[in-house]
What does this fold into?
Amino acid sequence: MEQAEFLKFKDELTAVGVTLVAVSKTKPEEDILRLYNWGHRDFGENYVQELTSKQEALPKDIHWHFIGHLQRNKVKYIAPFVHLIHGVDSERLLKEINKEAVKNNRAIAVLLQVFIADEETKFGLDRNEVMELTARLNQYSNVKVRGLMGMATFTEDMEQVRKEFQTLKTLFDDCRKTENGKDWDTLSMGMSADYKVAVAEGSTMVRIGTLLFGKRI
Ligand SMILES: *Cc1c(COP(=O)(O)O)cnc(C)c1O
It folds into this structure.
């Protein structure tokens, strides 16, 4: 995407209260710097090693979002600087993030990942697990849960995708009615192929790669 097109795209999202996370996985540092120089600060990565090496090399005011599947033994590498971890899909992982956050004397913001797709490959908690975990969140002093994240089924059927996003939005609203969820402000849903549907269904944060940087090899 060229500069004018990018700024317009971002402005349109901002106008409806949606934060754009530019998903830069597998893309070179120059691609990130290009958007950085256009004023963009939120970038998403899926792999810990790739994220840490980019974080070392690039400007320190970038907000790094970890959007991949995070293994517990790798939390320590990103704990000092990560802005938001989108994919918390177990209490064991949440516990580990809390431990590393305490060590680093900071609070780490996270989203609980919810399984909404009609596929076996996607990670995430189900509705009951989310409600139960949310009720126990006060045990974790240095983790700040900000909301939920989900990925829809990889399909052309946008009505199915819409229903999955609606399911996630309903759960988000239900959690916000509870004591530990009342300050939640982030619903991360929508990628290049389905972000329009996600925004229409109440997303507050979209994770976009292909549309901004072109296809990944
Ligand atoms: C790669 C990835 C994206 C971006 O996907 P695009 O289709 O390139 O926009 C968004 N979210 C997650 C979790 C990803 O792994």
Notes: The pocket of pyridoxal-5'-phosphate is lined by residues 23, 25, 46, 67, 151, 191-193, 207-211 (CB under 6 Å).
